[in-house]
Write a structure and sequence with these properties.
114 residues, mainly alpha, 434 Repressor (Amino-terminal Domain), two-stranded antiparallel sheet, 5 helices, 4 strands
Length: 114
């Protein structure tokens, strides 16, 4: 059976996630998550909550909600993670042209039509 650290690294690679992405997912500072990816074990009293969050992350990766589209900006990346984490993620619309010309990625989450 894989340890928490091994599962975390596997999810990071498969989901193409950064340390910042993982810190947002687990609601824990980047330094702590960075230590986990380097092999430091989390505190035992935190493990039940961390395993629940890791299970949800692995399930999101399995459901093809990660990796995020390349066009996703840093701000949209945070909103995307929040939407997936809260279970409000539904679909990613295709990039659309704006009045400025370049294509941008819109992220839809919540109820109703995009």
């Amino acid at each position: 059976m894989l340890s928490f650290n091994d599962r975390l690294l596997r999810a990071k690679v498969k989901g193409e996630l950064t340390i910042s992405d993982l810190s947002r997912w687990f609601c824990i500072c980047r330094e702590t998550v960075s230590k986990w990816t380097k092999g430091v074990k989390p505190a035992p009293f935190k493990l039940p909550r961390l395993y629940m969050a890791l299970d949800a992350l692995e399930q999101a990766i399995q459901q093809k909600q990660f990796p995020m589209p390349i066009e996703t900006t840093q701000f949209e990346r945070a909103k995307y993670l929040e939407a997936v984490c809260q279970g409000k993620f539904r679909a990613i619309p295709k990039p659309r042209a704006t009045a400025a010309g370049p294509k941008v990625l819109g992220i839809f989450y919540g109820k109703g039509k995009p």
